[in-house]
Amino acid sequence: MYDELTAVDIKKMKEELDHRIQVLRPQLIEEVQTARAFGDLSENFEYKCAKQAKGRNDSRIRYLERMIRTAKVIQVQDTADAVGLFDRVTIYNEMVKKEMEVRIVTTLRQDALKGLVSKESPVGKALLGHRTGERVEIEVNPNMKYFVEIRKIEKGEDDESLTISSY
């Protein structure tokens, strides 16, 4: 399955990739070489840490390259008065009897703790295309379902202020 990302997502990933290749990689290689000179590698904690940091950076580079290569670029479409990508939606969760605000984003920018919900998540899928006042069923899994009421929709746009997730 291809990740559906916006042009801004791709741009942000390319910027991070360039930084990791041109700036971080040389620094981390130098740190590994410096730590290696400290002596016995079997008891050299600095060497082990430097190698791990280099490995994490290389792993992130591979991840970003794969995401860029396999992404399906989508256009953000104006959905008039219905919930669309990057909109802020105020919902009332009937199960916990609580009102909350979520923003529908691409999978690369999701962060549930900040109210950024992926369009691929159960909540995102359920809300997309619905209008203010509608009652929507959210199916977490076949045994877990609940209803929310859409109370307010604030139209949003694909801005660069939303950071991409680290993994």
Topology (SSEs and partners):
Layout: E1 4-5, H1 7-36, H2 45-70, E2 72-73, E3 88-93, E4 98-105, E5 116-118, H3 122-127, E6 135-141, E7 144-154
Parallel strand pairs: 1-2, 4-5
Antiparallel strand pairs: 3-4, 3-7, 6-7
Helix pairs in contact: 1-2
Report on the architecture of this protein.
Helix 1 packs antiparallel against helix 2 (45-70). The mean pLDDT is 91. It is built from three helices and seven strands; from the N terminus they run βααββββαββ. A hairpin with a 4-residue loop joins strand 3 and strand 4 (98-105). The strands form two sheets. It has a five-stranded mixed sheet with strand order 5-4-3-7-6. Strands 1-2 form a two-stranded parallel sheet. The two termini are 17 Å apart. It is 37% helix and 23% strand. With 167 residues, it is of the alpha/beta class.
Oligomer: single chain
Could you tell me the number of beta strands?
Answer: 7
Structural class: alpha/beta
Main sheet overview = 5 strands, mixed
Going across the biggest sheet, name each strand in turn.
5-4-3-7-6
Overall pLDDT: 91
**Any idea what the shape is?**
elongated
Give the helix tally.
Answer: 3
From the alpha carbons, calculate the radius of gyration and give it in angstroms: 21 Å
Strand content is 15-25%
Termini, distance in Å?
17 Å
What is the share of helical residues?
Answer: 25-40%
Helix-strand topology string: EHHEEEEHEE
* Low-confidence parts: none
